[in-house]
Amino acid sequence: MADPSLPLPRIGVIGAGTCTSELAHAAYQVGQWIASYPATLVCGGLGGVMENAAKGAFEQGGLTVGILPTSDPGDANPYITIPIPTGMGHARNVLVVLSSQLIIAIGGQAGTLSEIAIALKLGTPIIGYRTWEIVPELKMASTIEELSTLFQQAVKSL
Amino acid sequence: MADPSLPLPRIGVIGAGTCTSELAHAAYQVGQWIASYPATLVCGGLGGVMENAAKGAFEQGGLTVGILPTSDPGDANPYITIPIPTGMGHARNVLVVLSSQLIIAIGGQAGTLSEIAIALKLGTPIIGYRTWEIVPELKMASTIEELSTLFQQAVKSL
Amino acid sequence: MADPSLPLPRIGVIGAGTCTSELAHAAYQVGQWIASYPATLVCGGLGGVMENAAKGAFEQGGLTVGILPTSDPGDANPYITIPIPTGMGHARNVLVVLSSQLIIAIGGQAGTLSEIAIALKLGTPIIGYRTWEIVPELKMASTIEELSTLFQQAVKSL
Amino acid sequence: MADPSLPLPRIGVIGAGTCTSELAHAAYQVGQWIASYPATLVCGGLGGVMENAAKGAFEQGGLTVGILPTSDPGDANPYITIPIPTGMGHARNVLVVLSSQLIIAIGGQAGTLSEIAIALKLGTPIIGYRTWEIVPELKMASTIEELSTLFQQAVKSL
Fold first, then answer.
1. Do D95 and A84 touch (CB under 8 A)?
2. H helices within D19-143, ranges in order?
3. What is the strand order of the sheet C64-68 is part of?
4. Residue D143, Cα to own-chain centre: how many angstroms?
5. A26 pLDDT exceeds 90?
6. What span, in angstroms and rounded, lies between the C-alpha atoms of C66 and C12?
7. Is A88 on the interface with C (CB under 8 A)?
8. Are A114 and B118 in contact (CB under 8 A)?
9. In a 3-state reduction of DSSP, which class is residue D9?
10. Element at B121 (helix H, strand E)
């Protein structure tokens, strides 16, 4: 269990609110890696990739921050320990990125693309798995093993 | 000159804060088309594509809204008639898209990509010139003439 | 009719979304003064004080900006010529104040108090009518005539 | 030490970024009460009342969330374990209130008044110490002992 009084690094996981079981499994794994590192997981607080990543971190005893688009903390998935309801809709995507020192993008559609773009704009390091292959700065993994390797490399710089 | 008491359609122009003279010319043209339509031009209020589009609309007697990332209305370019300072940084990109019924993307980098992504997420129609070719929903023009044709088609649905 | 190509001063009117006929009348008068000055009226875009102020300005041929809490421009009252849907809920109150060079508070409850507080924080001049008498910086009028006098004095500094 | 995997209640502390030693002491005490309850402390992440409250909670082993007006997590005071940089300026005040199930206002000026107003608007319970006495819903303590009593009563409803 992480010592809550330490300001741990913060790693964001972004991806769609509904996802395939394969992406759900990848997200769960990433959540476990983040909590084990140890780091605080940051996400958008809803379902799909966000929920599975939070579940992985939660079951490893980690802290999970969910920056919600709505103003109701009850909209957070059950694995979020710290809900941040914003009532800001899509504009909350920017806060997910700003709160993260490293971003892991798993699958995802237009909402995830907006977060990737903000990360590129801010210069936040970002690694991806089955997501938008748009620029070389976004390092892509095609297997869970490759994603694990990219993750281990990326956290060295935190 | 547009009658200010009519709620005109609102058309957004997005693109980088610095740009080549070729993109500046395209943005100026688009600004003129918007004011002539007539519609209100919405943009991020700063330089480059935003300034040239606003200049085109302004010189045609049009209204120009600049939704600024800073809290200082003085940061607007000189062709903005209605500055909306937000002090929200990159999160203001979402407001530019929400305030527009049609988006025209000209060139642009990561910030523009985030706005394109939000437009796709919201289902706002979007046409592009020398910008991110990422999905078929974003109709691309490769010349000013093609852009004019796409513009004329798009405004029919406003 | 105001020339839209001039960047007019921007004056905000704040107050509750439902109001008595007496406050509605005051708001309407203030809207007329703003458009006649001429200045652009800024408000929260909804009903009550906001709608009556916008109506006063609109019927005088003025520009009316409505910075909405929702993401739907259709939520604006019918006298708003430039809707700015934000989808940000109460956080949009800050934008109403930031976009205004002078604030006129008419009646109002907790939401209006939050806007008065932001105006005090930012140093934006503010005059009030039947609203929160909390600090001397907020100059209060007890009649429409007094409000007119305070308005005439305040616009001299714009 | 609190178990981070439990979603603890969230209690916000609001007040000015610089404060007297007397208010600093009150804020420190409140921070200790919050961590001991146990609850997660939410604040604006900067100095003065925010820093002293965070210090009290931190030294008790509690979690401390700092919702910052800037986009730089390094602007958080040293007792913040979870910085949420927003880059949204004063609009972040709304997020501090939305993230809290109970608000404790200690001293404070216009910024604090804006947060009190948002809490009143949202119906969030709020107790105060040497702050804005504006409405009966804001229960005021005039001594630390009274504040402790109000705190103990208020947390029963969380």
1. yes
2. 21-36, 49-59, 92-98, 110-122
3. C82-85, C64-68, C40-43, C10-14, C102-106, C126-129, C139-141
4. 18
5. yes
6. 10
7. yes
8. yes
9. coil
10. helix B110-122
Give the C-alpha separation, C128 to C72, whole Å: 30
The length of chain C, given as a count of residues: 158
Instruction: In whole angstroms, give the CA distance from residue B134 to residue A134.
Output: 8
Give the span between the Cα atoms of A126 and A116, in whole angstroms.
8
Please state, as a whole number, how many other Cβ atoms lie within 10 Å of the Cβ of residue A134: 17
In this complex, do B91 and D90 lie within 8 Å of one another by their Cβ atoms?
no
Q: Answer whether D20's CB lies under 8 Å from A95's CB.
A: no
Residues B9/B155, Cβ–Cβ less than 8 Å: yes
H helix or E strand, kind and range, residue C84: strand C82-85
* Residue C2 pLDDT: 42
Place A29 in a pLDDT band, splitting at 50, 70 and 90. Answer: very high
Please give the span between the terminal C-alpha atoms of chain C, in angstroms, as a whole number.
Answer: 20
Evaluate the omega torsion of the peptide bond into residue C7 and state whether it is cis, within 30 degrees of 0: no
> Which chain D residues are closer than 8 Å to C89 by Cβ?
94
Among the partner residues B8, B85, B99, nearest to C99 by beta-carbon distance: B85
Q: What is the mean pLDDT of residues B29-53?
A: 98
- Please check whether residue B117 is in contact with residue A113, taking contact to mean a CB–CB distance below 8 angstroms: yes
Low pLDDT (below 50) residues in chain D: 1-2
Tell which of D86, D90, D103, D138 to mutate to test the C interface (max C CBs under 10 Å): D90
Nearest to C16 by CA among C39, C43, C36: C43
CA–CA distance, B21 with D39 (Å, rounded to integer):
57
Alpha helices (runs of H) in A9-81, residue ranges in sequence order? 21-36, 49-58
Per-residue pLDDT tens over the stretch C16-48: 999 999 999 999 999 999 999 999 999 999 999
d(CA A57, CA C89): 31
List C-alpha distances in Å: B31 to B24, B26, B63, C45, D63. Answer: 11, 9, 10, 26, 51
C-alpha A48/C-alpha A108 separation (Å) is 10
Query: Structure pTM?
Result: 0.94
Are the beta carbons of C117 and D122 separated by less than 8 Å? no
The pLDDT tens digits for B49-70 are 999 999 999 999 999 999 999 9
Assign 3-class secondary structure to B47-103: CHHHHHHHHHHHCCCCCEEEEECCCCHHHCCCCCCEEEECCCHHHHHHHHHHCCCEE
